[in-house]
Amino acid sequence: MTEYPEKTCQIDRLVRQPKLVSAALSGQKTQQRRDGLYAYPGETFELEGVTFVVTEVARQRLGDMTDRDAQAEGYPNLAMYKDLILKMHANMEWNEDGLVWVHGFKRQQPE
Question: What domain of life does the native source organism fall in (predicted)?
């Protein structure tokens, strides 16, 4: 079993931006990177009445991100992801060695 630190934010704040909510609902977005831990594997959250389950949580260096990672975030490529993240977070610098929490999720199937 993997040990995780205490969460830094509530799971309902994991995916908030309307375009990213739409991307998750359409299945284009399956990951969310945050500088803090928002959820543990197995936890669920809702977006517009649809339930999602967190499937994995892992640490990643920003410098290790790929185009595939950016696509899982709902962006066409890493360059666009990086550009939009830097625009969204004033005074943020892209630090290749910066660590983020990758929250993987999927739509929960009805039982």
Answer: Bacteria
Residue 23 has pLDDT above 70, yes or no: yes
Domain segments of the chain as ranges: 11-107
Sheet containing 99-107: give its strands across. Answer: 31-34, 99-107, 50-61, 44-47
**Domain spanning 11-107: which superfamily?**
Sulfate adenylyltransferase (3.10.400.10)
The per-residue DSSP string of 55-84 comes to EEEEEEEGGG--HHHHHHTT-SSHHHHHHH
Phi, psi of 108 (to 5 degrees): -75, 130
The pTM of this model reads 0.93
